[in-house]
Amino acid sequence: MRRWWQDAVFYQIYPRSFADSDGDGVGDLRGIIGKLDYLRGLGVDALWISPFFPSPQRDWGYDVSDYRGVDPCYGTLEDAKDLLAAAHARGLHILFDLVVNHSSDEHPWFKAARSSTTAPEHDWYLWGPSDGSKPNNWVCLFEQGPAWFPNPATGERYLSTFTPFQPEFNWRDPGLRRQIFDIMQYWCDLGVDGFRLDVATAYVKDAELRSNPFSPNLIPDLFQRHVYDRNRPEVHGIFREMRAITGDDRVLVGETHGRDPALAAASYGAPAEGAPELHLNFNFDFMETGWSAKALRAAAERWYALLPEGAWPVFTLSNHDRPRHAWRFRGARPAVTEGRAKAAAALLLTLRGSPFLYYGEEIAMGCRRIPRAMLRDPLGIKTWPLGFLGRDPERTPMQWTAGAAAGFSTGFPWLPINPDWEERNVEAQLADPGSVLSRYRELLALRRAFPELREGGIRFMDAGRDLLVYTRFVEGGGALLVAINFSDRPRSLELDSPGEVILGEEGGPARLEAGRRRLGGLETLIARLS
Predict the structure, then answer these.
(1) Computed from CA positions of residues 305, 310, 315, 319, in that sequence, does the dihedral angle turn out positive or negative?
(2) Average of pLDDT values for 61-89?
(3) What is the CA radius of gyration of the chain?
(4) What share of the chain is helix, strand, coil (3-state, %, to 5)?
(5) In 247-286, which residue ranges form alpha helices assigned H by DSSP?
(6) pLDDT at 219
(7) Helix or strand or coil: residue 108?
(8) How high is the pLDDT of residue 2?
(9) How far apart are CA 5 and CA 2, in angstroms?
(10) Which of 119, 180, 305, 324 lies at a 20 to 30 A Cα distance from 404?
(11) How confident is the model over 92-145, as pLDDT tens digits?
């Protein structure tokens, strides 16, 4: 039985930067509600909302101080309920971002835990020896130093591998597990359709707190092979417990803490053997791959080969932690950058699997270097001037119009607007049938119209230099040809079968004949094969 999340196109919203309803310069839940009709018209099916829970905002919501509320900068709990209701009324599903590898150091649990070793909450967090020594060589990613921080009240050190103000949970403690599972049930009862699980494979640490072995890689490993501080085998039992809460009508989407796609594949469990774990898992290969038909095909084929039987793949090109793909794939000329953005959309939306879009990619929003005085990301501030490590450029406000603050806010935005907002915005691209946004809308409409694109199989074809070509097919049914030219120069494609063109170069023939077919620079051809 197919589930809604297998056919869905997901759209990630970073709420701080999407739409500001009250003019304070910060996006909010009411702002999202006001854009639901736009999202429905775009053609997406589900929204993943990055954290909006109460937080000191030292890591912009990924440091949670209350898992059952809404931070006042984003609205109220009633706003969250209204968002769920308004989205469901439009046929949209909603996923919340569950950040439970760690909490904020201002969470009441940690305040109690650090006050005394006899506090019930003390065992919900991870602590070093009572003599205050550092038990191992684990590192804090944002600090680039030891991950163990002193707690004078108890004479111990607590573990925090991201920032000093994000102490890590002890998932081996049954009391902590019950608390987290109760939080999940709370939001399920309010109507949420699933959760994206932040750094899910980091939940469990080595029971003996052994030191990580050496790695020659500085980025992203900080000279360690992270075999003891993350990605432990015990995490799979937690995933099974979580799935028992959500069932299959809701979806769990895992962010694995590492770049190895095998790690993501393992987090599905064994669906065909009756031992499923997370429903979907991110594979970040596409975010590490350059503009190359050969390399992107290899990444897709590697992912398909790694997946256990019965698992459904996920593809994504951008998110809140990685530079936007329109910027990564940019060309020497604006026309090339625009063409690559359209070709990338075609790839993402026609491969077999569930695509995840990131707000603004549908208008090819890019990244710009932000002055140091305007940085907000703790990692970007710590690693200045190494701008490629900061995450603010991919989090700038959505560009809705050519008006003040790009239509994002009537106030002063929390991050600077990209300087191209007057030309690159939703309003302008909706009026332009040749825009990147119009191409996204076309492709999303095709996914809805053709079951081959939603649920069909995939077969890659060898087609020559710069071409990525495959068929999407339904057993016993129809087949679609997808051909994408990754060069900005024309290329030739040899076709064995005729067909009907359903997406191609404007003014091109509606009938596809067998034989040699010219593909224009960065052209995408989609045809129904006879």
Answers:
(1) negative
(2) 98
(3) 24
(4) 30, 20, 50
(5) 261-266
(6) 79
(7) helix
(8) 94
(9) 8
(10) 324
(11) 999 999 999 999 999 999 999 999 999 999 999 999 998 999 999 999 999 989
In order of 248, 346, 394, 497, 508, the CA distances from 511 in angstroms are 42, 20, 41, 11, 9
Cβ burial, residue 86 (10 Å; 0-12/13-18/19+): middle
Provide the residue count of the chain: 530
DSSP letter string over 201-216?
GGS---TT-PPPPB-S
> Confidence band (pLDDT; 50, 70, 90) for 160?
very high
- The gap between the terminal CA atoms of the chain, to the nearest Å, is 29
Instruction: Quickly list DSSP for 51-89.
Output: P-SS---SSTTSS-S-TTS--TTT--HHHHHHHHHHHHH
Task: Write the pLDDT tens digit of every residue in 494-503.
Answer: 998 899 999 9
Residue 188: exposed, middle, or buried by beta-carbon count in 10 A (0-12, 13-18, 19+)? middle
DSSP-derived letter for residue 411 is S
Catalytic residue of the set 229, 255, 361, 362: 255
The 8-class DSSP code of residue 336 comes to H
Question: Can you tell me which residue has the tokens 């691209």?
Answer: 429
Residues 6+ apart with CB under 8 A from 424: 363, 364, 365, 399, 418
Token output for 206 = 């080595």
| C-alpha to C-alpha distances, 428 to 40, 403, 421, 423, nearest whole angstrom | 18, 11, 10, 7
Is 272 buried (19+), middle (13-18) or exposed (0-12) by CB count in 10 A? exposed
Distance CA 366, CA 150 (A): 41
Does the pLDDT at position 387 exceed 90?
A: no
Rounded CA-CA distance 324/315 in Å is 14
- Is CATH 3.20.20.80 what the domain over 4-103+173-443 is classified as, yes or no? yes
Fold of the 456-529 domain: Immunoglobulin-like (2.60.40)
Q: Please give the structure tokens belonging to residue 417.
A: 């607007």
Domain boundaries along the sequence of the chain: 4-103+173-443, 108-159, 456-529
Over the stretch 238-278, which tens digit does the pLDDT of each residue have? 999 999 999 999 999 999 988 899 999 999 999 999 999 99
**Each residue of 177-212: pLDDT tens digit?**
999 999 999 999 999 999 999 999 999 999 999 999
- E-strand ranges in 126-192 read 139-140, 145-146, 148-151, 156-159
Catalytic residue among 156, 168, 198, 523: 198
Using alpha carbons, select from 423, 443, 272, 280 the residue that is nearest to residue 348: 443
Q: What is the pLDDT of residue 250?
A: 98
Catalytic annotation present for 198 = yes
Q: What is the mean pLDDT of residues 219-237?
A: 93
Q: Is 229 a catalytic residue?
A: no
Instruction: Please report the sign of the dihedral spanned by the C-alpha atoms of residue 229, residue 231, residue 237, residue 243.
Output: positive
